[in-house]
Amino acid sequence: MTGESTIVIGLLLPEVLGTYSDAGNAAVLARRASWRGIPAEILILSADATPPASCDVYLLGGGENTAQLFAADWLRRHTRLRHALDTRAQTLAVCAGLQILGQSTRDRSGHHHPGLGVLDVSTAPGRHRAVGEIITSCVIPGIGQLIGFENHRGLTTVGHGTGRLATVLTGTGNGTTDQAGRRTEGVHTERVIGTYLHGPVLARNPALADHILRTVVGNDLAPLDELPDQTALRRTYLGPPATRRRIHIRRRLPKRLTHQG
Amino acid sequence: MVTSLAVMGWVRASVSRVRRGWARSAVRAGLAASRLSRRLGLGEGSIIGGRVTLALDPDALSRLAAGRCVVLVSGTNGKTTTSHLLAAALRTAGRVAHNATGSNMADGAVAALSAAVDAEYAVLEVDEWHLAEVAEAVDPAVVVLLNLTRDQLDRGTEVRAVAAALGSVLVRLPRTLVVANADDPMVVWAAGMASRTHWVAAGVCWTGDAASCPGCGSILRTTGGSWTCACGLARPEPDSWLDGELLRTGQEVTPLSLRLPGRFNVGNAALAVAAAARLGVPPRRAATAMGAVESVAGRFAVIRRGHQELRLLLAKNPAGWAATLSVLEEARALLIVINAREADGRDTSWLWDVSFENLPRRVVVASGERSADLGVRLSYAGIDHRTHPDPIAALALLPPGKVDVVANYTAFHQLLRRLAPRADTP
Question: pLDDT digits over B28-82, tens only?
Fold first, then answer.
């Protein structure tokens, strides 16, 4: 079995909570650990077996509505896992994953579906679907701006004692504001990072991946060289605003004016 | 009394004459707009032409389809290829209207029908989101349903909603035969609502979206190629099935020998043969005609450029990539071109559901407007690569010899225009 120093990453129900390619986050964590010489292992935790309660990190992804109800029901049945999420493991919960860890979700016909109750959040359907790029400013020191793509209809209200993950700069996020009137995104507790930034959020934001690894390992990590395309990737979505504006204006000009000769 | 009846009759006849004339004018205006668009080099012209016709005559689609034998081809992947195979088969029986360039919404269908008003058959590739609208207008003889998986989730909603919408249209078409893939649970759930079905076991390349039941959300049980759910949804007994490259329907055996590569194209051909048979083209004749198809709107085309021989492949979602990975040849270098425009879907998350980890060792270059997203994905997959956003410049980073070029939708069309500027289908 795994040695004491191996990080075990449990990917929960990828067959139903994999709509938005969230499984990539497991690969990012495992790679970033192994590049530092820390062995890491990914366990696929499917619905047909009892999930181990001993993983260091659990990942919950996004899914369609029927799949989300199935997943919530399945998680409630596995009490040892639920206990691990509450008391010892780290969890990254994305989109539907975030919603089902909460107290309850209300569907569009008004029915309340109980969540796992790991987080003090509740979700109701919004008026419009929030679809598009999102940029937030993370509350965790040293992480900076988070970039991602959101596609959901949830309005998530975060309880007073529960911290947000980030403040929305562009996009929707939780769709609610905190007491200070800031538009919030996701949740951040001692054990859980929840977010609406779906897909490979950890690939776009390696600092967040390293934060999770650091929490699991319990001490600072060796620095890693940045991946060759990482800077270009961040620039694609964050880009200096001045450059983006200039391109915008150039597009409006007739071609003769923008092409010399 | 008699006079007033005669007057009414005359008025009605005139109105209908004017309407027919108006409809013809609408078609002519559309064709003119399309010619103009082509001459100005703005594109194929089928979309603008169809839009002009539809704006002038909202019923143009029904009118143009009336009296013809119409087949609609829909699904997430393989629409263009399957419609080309089917059109090749039907051409052995008569003239065929076909939206060959892949303009697959109502405007594209109108343009294709306008361009061939005397064709007795029409093969229309239809985007799965527009199938409802088009099917209601044309009352098709056959609908071919290939597969339903994730594609552009940021634009549509989830795949299950697509399947539900399709099902609700099929219920309302009692005369239509639905030729559907029995191996795809989403397709079966949607096509199960149709009154008449012909099930073809055409296979699936990717099961990522099919693990949970489209009907009830439980996990599907799969055993030896078959699948069932506790709620009762199950793989239907196929009417036709594949045995290697042989298509079997009851006692009838049809060899499918294609020039197009890949197991998935054999599946596409199987569905096309079943549809053609329904329209009176004997399976062997259909299969022979399909066997002559070499490339499809630039896909699978081979282009020589300097010392390189490029084979162009289009893959735009995880299922398409799963199929494409199976035809990549080990000896070839690989250029991957990824954009994220409206038609591609703005969200690049899907790249993380492609098993790039399984790429055999080769020289790889990442390119396109989202080359950085792709490059990061390849790094995490452990694939050594270089990156250049411009695909033509990226080709210079690859060695001479055979190169497989895999691009997603808009990247593919941009590249095709730059490599073969004057040819629609090189």
Answer: 888 888 887 777 766 666 778 888 888 888 888 999 999 999 999 999 889 999 9
Q: Is the predicted ipTM greater than 0.95, yes or no?
A: no
Total structural domains within chain B:
3
Do A189 and A163 form a contact (C-beta atoms < 8 A)? yes
Pairing of strands A121-138, A112-114: unpaired
Q: How far apart are the first and last CA of chain B?
A: 66
Q: Chain B within 8 Å of A131 (Cβ-Cβ)?
A: yes
Q: Whole-angstrom Cα distance, residue A243 to residue B112? A: 42
Residue B208 and residue A199: Cβ atoms within 8 Å? no
Residue B285 Cα distances to B241, B256, B274, B290, angstroms: 18, 11, 12, 9
Are B268 and B313 in a shared domain? no
- B386 within a domain of the structure (yes/no): yes
User: Whole-prediction pTM value?
Assistant: 0.84
B residues 353-382 closer than 8 Å to A (CB): 353, 366, 370-377, 379-382
Query: Does A228 touch chain B if contact means CB atoms closer than 8 Å?
Result: yes
B231 touches chain A (CB under 8 A): no
State which residues form the domain around B50: 20-58
Per-residue pLDDT tens over the stretch A226-240: 999 999 999 999 976
Pick one of 2.40.50.100, 3.30.300.30, 3.40.50.880, 1.10.10.10 as the CATH number of A7-258: 3.40.50.880
Q: Is residue B220 part of a domain?
A: yes
B347, B385: one domain: yes
